[in-house]
Amino acid sequence: xxxxxxxxxxxxxxxxxxxxxISVLAGTMNPPDYTTADFDRNPLMFxxxxxxxxxxxxQHCRASAQPxxxxxxxxxxxxxxxxxxxxxxxxxxxxVMTGGDPLKRPDIFQLIRHxxxxxxxxxxxxxxxxxxxxxxxxxxxxxGVKRLGISLDGPDAETHDAFRGWRGSFKRTLEMLDDxxxxxxxxxxxxxxxxxxxxxxxxxxxxxARREIVMWSVFFLVPVGxxxxxxxxxxxxxxxxxxxxxxxxxxxxxxxxxxEAPHYRxxxxxxxGDPLAGPAGRPSSRRxxxxxxxxxxRDGKGILFVGYNGEILPAGFLPVHxxxxxxxxxxxxxxxxxxxxxxxxxxEFSGKCGYCEFRQICGGSRxxxxxxxxxxxxxxxxxxxxxxxAAA
Length: 392
Hints:
Layout: E1 45-49, H1 76-86, E2 94-98, H2 108-117, E3 122-124, H3 134-143, E4 147-151, H4 157-164, H5 169-182, E5 186-193, H6 201-209, E6 215-220, H7 235-251, E7 255-259, H8 263-270, H9 286-289, E8 303-306, E9 312-313, H10 330-336, H11 338-343, H12 366-373
Parallel strand pairs: 1-2, 1-8, 2-3, 3-4, 4-5, 5-6, 6-7
Antiparallel strand pairs: 8-9
Helix pairs in contact: 1-2
C-alpha cells in the first residue's frame, strides 16, 4: 500500500502534557431542533480542523494534507480555549473534529473529552489508515464521540483506492465500518462525487444498504486544494444525481443528504417531497438521522469552520478569511463579520441566485461560486434551474 511517510517523534510538537487541564453528526443529547431563528445567533455545525496531518494523498483533498503537522497548528491548550470560547454561543453547536486525520494528533482524545465535558456533541472523521485501529475507535467512543464520519468514494476497491492514493484503502474502510458497528458507534458515510465515480451512485447506495450506516452524505466537488485537478460533473448531471439520491432517500434504511449541493433541496421540493424526510420518506427528527440540517443551512449560515491554525472561515471549502483565533473571537466572527452576514442574506446574491424563489432554502454553494468565479455571492455555477420570475 502507498502510505505517506510517518512523522518522526520530534515532529509531534503538541503532545499532551500529563495532567494538563465532530449534512454532520449528532449524538444522544437530542436538544431542541435547530431552527431558522438560530442562523443569526449560532451555528448548527462547528467544524474544527484539528490538524492537516494525514497519511493519505487523496485526489480531492481540500486541505492538500501532508503527513506531518504544520508548525503553527494550535496547541493542546489553545485548542481547549477554542472549545471553551465556542461554548459561549447562545446554544452549543455540534463539533466535528476533522482534518487531515484527527488521529494524527496525539492529544485528540483529550480534546474530545474536553469538548464533551463542556456539553458539546462531538463527531470525528478519522482517515482509513492503520491509525484507525479498533482500540483507537474504542478510545474515541469512551472519550465521548457518538458518531464517526468515514469516507467511501466507490463501491469497489478500484474506484475508491484511486481516490485515496493507496491500494488497500477500500478494504480498510470496510473494516472500520465493522469495527464501529461492533463497539456501538454510529457511522455517516461521506462520498465525494466526480466524473470518475458518478456512474456508480446506485452501486454505492446498494453497498451501503448492507453496512448498517445511519446517513449517506454525498459531497459534490468544489475545485479547491487537490480537487482542482478533478473534473466536476455537469449541471445537467446534477439533476440525474439528485433523482438517484431522492430515490434512495425514500427506499434505503439510511438517511441521505448532500454537501455543497443545496440545490438538491430545490429538486426535492419540486418532487413534492420533504428535504428533511428520513428513511422511506418518513418525517425525520434529529434523533432519527443525526445532523440533518434544516432548510437553509449552507456555508456561513449555520456553519462555522476553524482551521488547524485558528483561521476562521465560513466553511472548509470557502477560504474567505474572517479572523484568526485566539486574536479574534469565533463567536464574534460568526455573529458580526461582514462575510458571514452577507452569506446569510441571499437577497443580495448576484445573478439568478439573488432572485430565485428557492434562494432562502437553497442559495447555491457559496464555496463553488467562489472557487469558480472568485465571488462568494455569485450564482451557483452548477445549477441548471431557471427561476420562474425574472430579476427585478
